[in-house]
Write a structure and sequence with these properties.
By secondary structure, the protein is mainly α. The chain contains 15 helices and 2 strands.
Length: about 290
């Protein structure tokens, strides 16, 4: 995203980390993502964002665990104290759609790999971007006429698709090693278009560039600029976070696979180097631990 005009401002991460407290000590990587994604948000909204990211993580990793419901209740109890009524309504609508999509995805996760278009449409919901964008409007009264305006919806989809592409390019290496790349966009492109890994990533990168141009060239009303600036920072924040190494390592903890020491070093140490060189050593296939 070299030419993306929305930069992540310099932030005082230690202040953010202290603000969220000891209850999030096991989710330090997620706290870092929130600090990057909402750099201009007040502290209370930063805290709400941290709780929301933890809800997403717990729902994804531990869907049969009561911790997910506990975090969701704590998040919502805090959010309704300061969030505008319109942002609360928009969050409930988008989060409900997210939950429905996650259930549908769980039913097909081990079945066929979907077409690129179908996959992208489904992941716009399951990635959780639109509920996350609600944090950007918590301090404003964004009317439904603006929120659901076709031009705004298209820009939200552009930002979401950029996050999807960035996530799947970064996570493909880990997922192919773990044997869980069946619903990765890169795998889908390879299968549908008959491309190798390099060709698929190049195709995804080209589409990402098109999305950037579409977003930048859009003409929007000044009344929604603050909201759009918020969702525009998200793809940049996600990219920065992805290459810090912490993301791949911490999210790998919950996967029951053996990786070699050298593979772990690639995941943990080489993020900044990969971001500069664009060269990624392919991880070896991991062996699944049998219960």
């Amino acid at each position: 995203m070299i030419n993306w005009p929305w930069l992540v401002p310099s932030i005082r991460f230690e202040d953010v980390k202290a603000e969220v407290g000891a209850s999030f000590r096991d989710f330090r990587a997620l706290t870092r993502l929130v600090a990057l994604a909402y750099p201009n948000a007040p502290r209370e909204h930063i805290r709400i964002g941290c709780e929301l990211m933890n809800v997403f993580f717990l729902l994804e990793e531990y869907t049969d665990n009561e911790n997910g419901a506990e975090f969701l209740h704590r998040f919502w109890a805090r959010a309704i104290k300061t969030a505008s009524l319109s942002s609360q309504r928009h969050f409930l609508e988008t989060f409900t759609a997210y939950l429905h999509a996650v259930v549908v995805e769980a039913l097909i996760v081990n079945k066929v790999i979907c077409a690129v278009l179908m996959t992208t449409q489904a992941w716009r919901l399951t990635i959780g971007a639109t509920p996350s964008f609600a944090i950007c409007e918590m301090g404003m009264d964004l009317p439904d006429e603006a929120f659901y305006h076709p031009a705004i919806v298209e820009l939200v989809e552009c930002s979401t698709d950029m996050i999807i592409i960035g996530n799947d390019i970064v996570s493909y290496n880990k997922e192919q090693a773990a044997g869980s790349d069946g619903h990765n966009l890169i795998s889908t492109i390879m299968l549908e278009l008959g491309l190798d890994i390099g060709g698929a990533i190049a195709w995804a990168a080209h589409y990402h560039a098109e999305l950037q141009k579409r977003f930048i060239d859009a003409s929007v009303d000044v009344l929604v600029k603050e909201y759009l600036d918020g969702i525009a920072i998200w793809p940049r924040a996600d990219t920065c976070w992805s290459y810090e190494g912490q993301r791949s390592y911490e999210f790998l903890i919950g996967i029951n696979y053996h990786l070699t020491r050298s593979d772990l070093q690639v995941l943990w140490y080489k993020g900044p180097e990969i971001q500069q060189t664009r060269l990624v050593p392919l991880l070896s296939k991991a062996k699944c631990i049998t219960a």
